[in-house]
Design goal:
By secondary structure, the chain is an alpha/beta fold. Helix content is 26%, strand content 32%.
Length: 282
């Protein structure tokens, strides 16, 4: 796993020998933060590549293929998302997409690793001004601890985390889901990425089962993400009377989205038959 200087390529290896790779022009930055190994590369065709602990986080060209399905389906399904919490998301892409919604009065982002934010600000422009938006509150800290201790309530909570290992492991626990449910308003939505449909099926099932023990309803969907072992899965937890199968298409028209298509929202729910069968048995 990692950078091959001879081949001038970065390859992330998944289970069973499956890999996702990028041709690299140069390595721009590398350091060991307090929490993880951070690397930044300039790729041949996809701009800068951000890597944490050997796993691809995003490439500049196409990062919207992750951030759009993570943010807009829940924001458009909620009738009036005014207060939003983002846990993780240090590159600023999720914050950027949340703030595109005119209903948002405050977006709080809690990122555990300050260096991810700083490197993203210096080397990349994924946030596109989101960090400076007056509606944004950006904090460096433990999102799990913050959620447990805060007195604030939210309409939407977005977990933009790495895979369920290291500092992110607790973000996939039933205890964390219970804290999220408690801190949602009477009508609220929670979303998390849940890994590769084909290669992390067990992790998807475990997270789905834990969320079903907590939320009023749980939905699963997938989306092809550039740089990840697609299709990539997402899980949505519902509190209260919200139908996640429907979104506000009129509000979506102002957003000018590139990857996620609100008019074809129902296509999100397509899963391989064997995965759907497994999920429906949970």
């Amino acid at each position: 796993m990692g950078y091959n200087e001879k081949e001038r390529a970065f390859i992330e290896w998944y289970p069973r020998g499956y890999g996702v790779g990028f041709k690299v022009k140069e390595r721009l930055f590398e350091t060991q933060t307090k929490y993880q190994r951070l690397e930044l590369y300039e790729t041949e065709g996809f701009g800068k590549l951000l890597v944490l602990d050997g796993t691809v986080q995003l490439v500049e060209v196409g990062e919207e293929s992750y951030h759009e399905p993570l943010v807009h389906p829940v924001m458009l399904a909620h009738p009036n998302p005014r207060r939003v919490l983002i846990i993780g998301g240090g590159d600023g892409g999720t914050l950027r997409e949340v703030l595109r919604h005119e209903t948002v009065e405050k977006a709080t982002m809690v990122e555990i690793d300050e260096l991810v934010v700083e490197v993203s600000k210096i080397y990349m422009n994924v946030a596109r001004g989101a960090f400076e938006d007056p509606r944004a509150e950006v904090m460096v800290g433990d999102g799990v601890k913050y959620l447990k201790e805060t007195d604030e309530r939210f309409d939407v909570i977005i977990a933009d985390s790495t895979d369920p290992v290291g500092p992110a492991k607790l973000l996939f626990s039933e205890e964390f889901y219970r804290d999220a449910y408690e801190k949602l308003n009477d009508k609220g939505l929670y979303i998390t990425q849940a890994g590769s449909v084909y290669l992390f099926t067990n992790e998807l099932l475990d997270a789905y089962k834990a969320m079903k023990n907590v939320f009023d309803r749980v939905y699963y969907f997938s989306f092809p993400v550039i740089g990840y072992a697609s299709p990539w899965s997402f899980l949505v937890g519902v509190k209260g009377d919200i139908d996640f199968t429907k979104v506000d298409v009129e509000r979506a028209e102002k957003l000018d989205l590139y990857y996620y298509d609100p008019e074809r929202h129902e296509t999100l729910f397509q899963m391989p038959k064997y995965v759907r069968d497994l999920l429906e048995r949970v």
